[in-house]
Design a protein that fits this description.
With about 375 residues, this protein is α/β, with parallel strands linked by helices. It contains 14 helices and 12 strands. Strands 1, 4, 5, 6, 9, 10, 11 and 12 form an 8-stranded parallel β-sheet that branches. The protein has a two-stranded parallel sheet with strand order 2-3. It has a two-stranded antiparallel sheet with strand order 7-8. The chain is globular.
Length: about 375
């Protein structure tokens, strides 16, 4: 993450200055006229319960999210449900700054942090929930191991008596050695262990690193909502939708991909009482070959991580979104919420369209099998 920040830092500063000038000069209002007949879909992931935002950019601090909702309110954004937004899009009834808020994955922070704030502003959201950890009610193994290696309170991680390799003293200042040791642990846990075994590995590695695993478990900083919390959100008017069971949707395996949706839908339908028909591609990776499978499974829309606005020409199975990052300056979020950002080339937000290979370290959920 530090490398990404360094690579794009000066470019973000230039862009922030440009956007500030656009706002002061009134150019933003001109772009809002161009975006009037388009649908803006905002994308969030987790919300900070402890110190997650300094760890991974997918976690939004509470105060940042509150401020962004204030920006939407001040700009008189017309925040609607996904179903309403898509209906207006298809029928050509988009007016004003029509916005849909989406939240990916189903982290507990969506329930504890985002939902109360959204209700305070009178807004709703679509929450795409991956259900493996909903059922298991355990912290996401991969995220815990990331955290262990990033925030160990010791300079050297003394790993002993583990099944995935020899005893070793990992110098955490040596990035290459640290990454190798981390991926040895993750790969073994995700390919050779069941969930109980993975959590035992997470507990042991936390102890080696001087990190309180019980705090991670108690705060639910890397945990998902449980079925009761999903049921509660649905009863309060939040839209719970599909995101696969194990956070994977393999482009070359129709049977596995459809099974992911089938398992995901069964669990969510039991929680909500309705049949989910909207989908979010895991990690934003998608391919046109998957569209036939989605239609076969009764999926009506699917969101990507591709940046941009949506109009009547946008395929409903490849909807674009504007993704928030905690490192994003306020002026950049305000411009995005006004519909300006999609007219500029996004920085540090590449398209993941098609079969572009996703770097292993970009995945945040892992592909637990058992």
């Amino acid at each position: 993450m530090k490398g990404v920040a360094g690579r794009y830092g000066w470019r973000r500063a230039v862009k922030a200055a440009f956007l500030h000038a656009c706002r002061v000069s009134g150019v933003v209002h001109i772009f809002r006229l161009f975006a009037k007949r388009k649908l803006l879909v905002l994308c969030y992931h987790g919300f900070e319960l402890d110190d997650e935002s300094r760890f991974r950019q997918i976690f939004t601090p509470r105060d940042s999210f509150r401020h962004q909702l204030e920006v939407l309110s001040a700009q008189k954004s017309n925040v609607v449900s996904l179903g309403e937004g898509l209906a207006r899009l298809k029928e050509g009834r988009l007016t004003g700054n029509t916005t849909v808020i989406t939240i990916d994955d189903g982290f507990y922070g969506a329930y504890a942090v985002a939902a109360p704030l959204l209700e305070k502003f009178g807004y709703t959201a679509t929450i795409y929930v991956s259900t493996y950890h909903v059922i298991k009610e355990t912290p996401v193994f991969r995220l815990v191991i990331y955290y262990v290696f990033d925030f160990a309170s010791v300079p050297v991680l003394r790993v002993r008596n583990v099944a995935w390799g020899e005893d070793q003293d990992v110098d955490l200042a040596d990035r290459d050695a640290s990454r190798r040791a981390m991926w040895q642990c993750i790969t073994y846990g995700e390919t050779a262990c069941n969930e109980a075994q993975r959590q035992e590995i997470a507990r042991r590695m936390s102890a080696y690193a001087g990190i309180d695993y019980e705090h991670i478990s108690r705060t639910r900083m890397f945990s998902y909502m449980n079925r009761g919390e999903i049921r509660d959100l649905a009863s309060r008017g939040f839209d719970i939708q599909l995101h696969t069971h194990r956070h994977r949707f393999p482009p070359g395996d129709r049977a596995a991909a459809c099974k992911e949706i089938e398992e995901n839908r069964g669990i969510l339908e039991a929680c909500t009482g309705y049949r989910p028909v909207h989908f979010c591609y895991p990690d934003g990776i998608w391919d046109r070959s998957q569209w036939a499978w989605l239609k076969e499974m009764g999926v009506e829309s699917a969101v990507t991580s591709d940046p941009g606005l949506n109009d009547r020409r946008t395929p409903l199975l490849a909807l674009r979104r504007f993704s928030y990052s905690p490192r994003m300056p306020d002026v950049e979020f305000a411009a995005g919420a006004a519909g300006l950002m999609p007219f500029l080339r996004p920085i540090a937000q590449p398209s993941r369209r098609g079969t572009r290979p996703l770097q292993t370290e970009e995945r945040h959920n892992g592909n637990e099998q058992k």
